[in-house]
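Morning, I've got a small favour to ask if you have a moment. I've dropped the whole record in just underneath, so have a look.
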Amino acid sequence: MNKRVFLIVLDSVGIGALPDAADWGDEGSNTLGAIKNHPKFNCPNLEKMGLMNIDGVGGGVKNPTASFAKMAELSLGKDTTIGHWEIAGVVSPNPLPVYPNGFPQEVIEQFEKLTGRKTLCNKPYSGTDVIRDYGEEHLKTGALIVYTSADSVFQVAAHESIVPVEQLYEYCEIARSILVGKHGVGRVIARPFEGEYPFKRTSRRHDYSLLPPSNTMLDLIKESGKEVISVGKIYDIFAGRGLTASNRIKNNEDGMEKTIQIAKEQFNGLCFVNLVDFDMVYGHRNDIEGYANAMTVFDKQLEQLLPLLKEEDILIITADHGCDPKTPSTDHSREYTPMIIFGNKIKAGVNLKTRKSFSDISATVLEYLEINQGDTAGESFLSEVQK
């Protein structure tokens, strides 16, 4: 009997500040709260399933069709990498390093030596602003634009006519080999751009993640002989580990189209989806209208996915952190995340209240797939929701 689990991460759709949010400069953040009353927000399918019934969200329906929970993050972080690792059963007790003043000189010198190119910028910057401000100097000198953000990232931007994208990837692999130990950032990101001023980033971004420090549910599912199919940046977040197939995407809509196609095919195991536009395109740019509209588009595509779920299928929708577009900050926010679980084998309307860790999702997925969770973190809530 094939059991399929579809796990969709709405990247950055947080639902309210965690108790320690003030320690991270995120007091009062609420990503869903910032967009749900916008005229462009229209998510009848999510609402029918119980999104607004989650504790603290407000405005729930009478008879939700799914069960739901408010998920707390146990790891010390608010970034994509740590959030996804925890969803997959690995709790991170230490935050990944960040560089509010840029990278130390020894890192930059080693990077310049190994790539044979000088660098520009080396400070926190918006990805669109950095190519506006340094793009022309890069064209003249060939120096690589290196920058970071409030997140644990080392980003390298280069014009595709100056640095072919494959060479940019090689430079990022060099950076990844340097950035280990105390400088082990969560991600090294290739940021190619093109055209004339004002320059435009291309879709050929590539992330080089730190390997998870221990086994995740992906490893356990794969080792059991079942399939682990990724859609979107899941491949990058887990550095390709624990996957049997991967699907790159252009944007959220393409990600859902690929997920819908996978749902029409036979497999036994997990389809793990990340939809990054909520975060990358709208959250980081404080675009409330765009964020609200992107949720509406997702909801319409969700309506196409739901009829494709078979008798033994489970759908889980969650998030990895917040990125409140209403606050002055353009960076991630430390928030609770939503969790909706749906399927023919799942009870409707069970309020699982607040769960203490995202990793409860991993434990639940593994139990449903009849795989021992080993040393992975989390407490399964399957017994509370399974018919």
